[in-house]
Amino acid sequence: MNTQLQRAQAMPLAVPGHDLDAYIRAVNAVPVLSAEEERVLAERLYFQEDLDAARNLVLAHLRFVVHIARSYTGYGLPLGDLIQEGNVGLMKAVKRFDPAKGVRLVSFAVHWIKAEIHEYVIRNWRIVKVATTKAQRKLFFNLRGQKKRLGRLTPEEAARVADDLGVTPEQVKEMEGRLGAYDASFDGPINDDEDNTIPSPAAYLHSDNSDPAELLAEQDDQDRNSRKLGSALLALDDRSRDILERRWLADSKSTLQELADEYGVSAERIRQLENNAIKKLRNAIAA
Known about the structure:
Number of strands: 0
CATH architecture of the domain at 1-126: Up-down Bundle
Order of helices and strands: HHHHHHHHHHHHH
Largest sheet: none
Radius of gyration: 23 Å
Mean pLDDT: 75
Strand content: under 5%
Helix content: 55-70%
Number of helices: 13
């Protein structure tokens, strides 16, 4: 076992409130486990209930909790508290990790870590307290992510968000207004000593569900649908694909009339081509 990792066994798992920077430096000093080292420790824990192995697995992944927790600082909550909640999720994941599944621990643990942080945010952030249903919580996390890159939503954008998340456009605009009232803490500063060499363990999955099996299944569905969508786009004719990309995917979206002028047809014909292409994409994803 790595000597540096053995020395780290004396490190307390609780996040100190008085010297968070020292804690972050300490967890970043713990070396990342190789796949073989992780497998050996996981098997000792899973088959022999070796608590020292569990501790070493947790210690080696504390840096990832810090990395994930930093992405939630925009809610205005203490980073130390976010890390502490994430550590709880990490320990739950280590307890349930089955090395026979053939995946790395971080890929499994990320969902538990985020689920614990989500629950903490929902309990403590005043705007999230109004999001009491699953649809409202999903709206909150999705809309907050979009607000970082978009200005105020247009009626068309609000309608699309509402359709995607199963809420009404009025609820989207209402939540947008509540988010706007808290913009002072939206873009809270990220700690300047962040270790940019740490890879992100997984893309953020917006959900208030803390069951990692359901989260993984949803992620698999999203990945599968993305592949289907890419294949369906390639199967379209050049004109239909160009219309869809410029109407839906481009940063500066083209109007129906602009495309009509370019292709020498009516705006209504462009709309028909667009609708037909969308139907083909939906059928491909549903197939």
